[in-house]
Amino acid sequence: MSKSNNSLTSLALQKFKTNFWGVFSLGIIACIGVISVFAYLFAPDASKNANQMHLSIHSKSPGFEVEMLTIPSSIESHQGFLSKLFFGSENTDTEIPIQSYAVKDKMLTYVEYASDGLQGIEKQIGLDRFPNSDYKPFIENRSFVFGTDKYGRDYLSRILIGSRISFFIGFIAVFISLVVGLLMGSLAGYYGGKVDAMIMWVINVTWSIPTLLLVIAITLALGKGFWQVFIAVGLTMWVEVARVVRGQIISAKEMQYVTAARALGYTDYRIITKHILPNIFGPLIVISAANFAAAILIESGLSFLGIGAQPPMASWGAMIKDHYNYIILGKPYLALIPGICIMLLVMAFMLVGNALRDALDVKA
Where, by residue number, does the polypeptide cross the bilayer (predicted)? Predict the structure, then answer.
């Protein structure tokens, strides 16, 4: 039996490998996954939530460059390496975009950056504010690959860190939907009768409520926040899983191997978990891939409405909300870049789901 399972698994894997778009999409998902986990390692602005604001350089075009003066803070940071890697640096230094600078009489004189050809304010600071009075390491030419947002934050960094929410909400929401959906669907399909009628009533009532409206209600009940959105999206996606599991178990429980397991005196729990569920795992993989994409879209919609991840946390949906009016103000890329990222990730999950469906189709 184990040998047969291995051969079927290897056959499905070989069929999946022949699907170019499925493999390509899986590679995109893997790349986005690595970027989301180690976002602060790749982001030019490694501060927490990439929230370094420079209002004087707001809404600049991609490729914008400016000299940046960093004034070190006297506050010492005791943040550990892992905390910086996964949660960003607690940056207490002051960053100032400048147009020019000069040194005279142990004073650093600089002119703050001003756009539209205006002359910035001239200010001075003592060289003793810098370690060993060496100011040169604290003045650098900084490039913004995706430009800056309306608050002057590095847009590339916000995009990279915003991938975390869109990527991880898929995993957490699908996990919650699988736990609830497997439990409800297994009970309804295996026992039938009144249990099935009661669970199907709950499923139909939940199914009749618009998904976005239900998510908004759960989010408002739990409060606005990061984890609340994950839980809310997961609790609205279990219905599809439960319906698929119920239908699969209704057909599978009449099979001979289930009858043999009952004759051997196995418990219902063992029959469901050890015998039935492993044989209906294929459709669950396919629906989970589709639910990944749906969860990303729902979260983006919630963030656009302002009840998703709250500022200053970066989110692709919230970034579209903040900059959608820039589409008619001559800078559409501020809304299009996160929109393209959402489209790319959702399409990748859908193509992987289609490839898995074809690979696990035993009739083919």
Answer: 20-43, 167-192, 198-222, 280-298, 333-356
